[in-house]
Amino acid sequence: MNPSLYDLLDVDSTASDAEIRAAWKAAIADLDPSDRRFRAYNQAAEVLLDPGKRAAYDAELVAADHDEPEPVSEAVAAEYHGPAPVAAEAAGSGKAGLGSRIADLKRRLARPQPEKAGTSTGTPSRQVPAWLLIGLAVVVAALIAGVVYFANQPSDTEVEESTREAQSAAERAIVPVLSYDAKTLDEDQAAAHAQMTSDYREDYDKLFESIKENAPSTGTVVTAEPPFASGIVRSGEDRVEVLLFVNRPTTNKARPEPVVFRDQVTVTMQRVGGDWLIDDLKTSPVAP
């Protein structure tokens, strides 16, 4: 059996979002964004941190566990004039694979029960074991639920395009949002507002008030640079979470030479009309 996404991040299948997020950040902390493992960890977190994708993935794991039914003896198989039940084909990617598995299971349920040799046509035939019918019904129900879920999801192309747009918007927006000059605080705040949803502006303004109180006396100037690396934490059609690595050269009256702070920034981008805007932002320092 191939390792699951839970195995990749070294968490239990019952792990909370906070536990998964912590495991993911720890896994990529020392990796270069060009490292193939960086993308693998991001893809695992993208699935497990999205409630809908995680539910679908968990359903696939459950279906995989049911792929091999209990063996049927040769004597019983002969009595039913047919081969013993075999495992259903592995679920293919997309809707076609699921539809094939459902059709196959339906044909098995609809197969007429053979008559026992030596009996008249009016004699009732032997019944298929109830446990087998129940098990197949459960699998069919799970597969149908999976088909309905995937049928209502946007196409992979649409999600991929939206994700790219959100990532580019995040890389542009983070510069004015993290930058400010003690001499132009009002203008800097207005420039940051243009990159945010109305809900996040309220949170941002609360933090910016402390900057307005202290920056004039210290003469602080923060000039955020465009991200030197970025990755996708969670993709979607209207909401995307992006991880950015940003350098922030900072000066003040006491330190006229720039001191560069390196931040790991997780930005949640929300589509509003035709624009991608910041709806949440969390920063943490990158270890030197």
Main attributes?
288 residues, alpha+beta, Nuclear Transport Factor 2, Chain: A, 3 domains, 6-stranded antiparallel β-sheet
CATH superfamily of the largest domain: VirB8 protein
State the order of secondary-structure elements, H for helix, E for strand.
Answer: HHHHHHHHEHHEEEEE
Shape descriptor: elongated
Sheet with the most strands? 6 strands, antiparallel
Query: Structural class, judged by helices and strands?
Result: alpha+beta
Output the radius of gyration. 28 Å
CATH topology of the largest domain: Nuclear Transport Factor 2, Chain: A
Helix content: 40-55%
| Average of pLDDT | 80
The total tally of domains equals 3
CATH class category label of the largest domain: Alpha Beta
How many alpha or pi helices? Answer: 10
Q: Which oligomerization state do the chains in this entry correspond to?
A: single chain
Sequence stretches where pLDDT stays below 50 over 5 or more residues? 68-97, 115-120
**What fraction strand?**
15-25%
